[in-house]
Specification:
Distance between the termini: 51 Å
CATH class of the largest domain: Mainly Beta
Strand content: 25-35%
Radius of gyration: 19 Å
Number of domains: 2
Number of strands: 12
Order of helices and strands: HEEEEEHEHHEEEEHEEHH
Shape: globular
Strand order of the largest sheet: 3-2-6-9-10-5-4
Largest sheet: 7 strands, antiparallel
């Protein structure tokens, strides 16, 4: 099949675009508004951008009434947010926190989640989440949409603190991804989680290239010496 988005119809029961870029990690973002009220929401268009320094981004489309979502507004106004890793075991809470609610409603409470204070920023962390990033807001790229919900704020943040539960670090000092079972978004109403993995090492033996693949700044610097 072939179609041009927004120009020619795809002819399918549901739009296939989001099902083509999969799986996508969940940006489970906690913020606090200027009144000190906590907010938590998942975003399926989330990713790390670079590793030195570590920077992440999440895309926040407008709500069903075409207004900026609380998460984007809070991050911009307070300059802070936290990413909490979403897992298969936390899937129901993630789904509950996705509900569109009035500003000021605490999704932590609504989803029955215990909070943990952050070390360097004000937004709370999800206690049962095995990994959290404390982030400071960098900037927003806003893209206008063809429809009210289509407009999107792409929020970038610098990771200034990382929390990893000791229980998910294996005997080799590596994060045990299969134990965590990170949740990922597919298309339609479908999700998946990581339950298998395999390794591939880029050929050629370049220490700098492999350090970049690993995401290790120190090794990358040493490789240049």
């Amino acid at each position: 099949m072939f179609y041009q988005p927004g120009i020619t119809p795809h002819g399918l029961p549901r739009d296939p675009f989001k099902s083509c870029v999969v799986p996508r990690p969940i940006g489970w973002i906690s913020t606090v508004n200027q009144l000190g009220q906590d907010n938590l929401a998942p975003f399926s268009q989330f990713q790390n951008v670079t590793f030195d320094p570590p920077i992440v981004m999440f895309s926040s489309n407008q709500d069903t009434e075409g207004n900026q979502k609380d998460t984007a507004r809070n991050a911009e106004r307070t300059g802070e947010f936290v990413w909490n890793m979403a897992t298969y075991d936390l899937r129901e809470a993630v789904n509950i926190s996705a509900e569109e609610l009035p500003d000021g409603v605490d999704e932590f409470v609504r989803a029955g989640l215990e909070k943990l204070p952050s070390k360097l920023v004000k937004p709370m962390r999800v206690k049962k989440s095995p990994i959290q990033f404390e982030c400071t807001y960098l900037n927003t790229l806003r893209f206008p949409g063809a429809s009210p919900m289509g407009s999107v704020d792409v929020i970038f943040g610098k990771v200034i603190a990382i929390h990893i539960d000791d229980e998910v670090i294996d005997k080799n000092g590596m994060i045990d991804i299969l134990k965590i079972k990170p949740l990922a978004r597919m298309g339609y109403y479908d999700y998946t989680y990581v339950d298998k993995k395999f390794q591939m090492v880029i050929p050629g033996g370049s220490k700098g290239l492999l350090a970049g693949l690993e995401g290790s700044p120190d090794k990358a610097i040493n490789a240049l010496k």
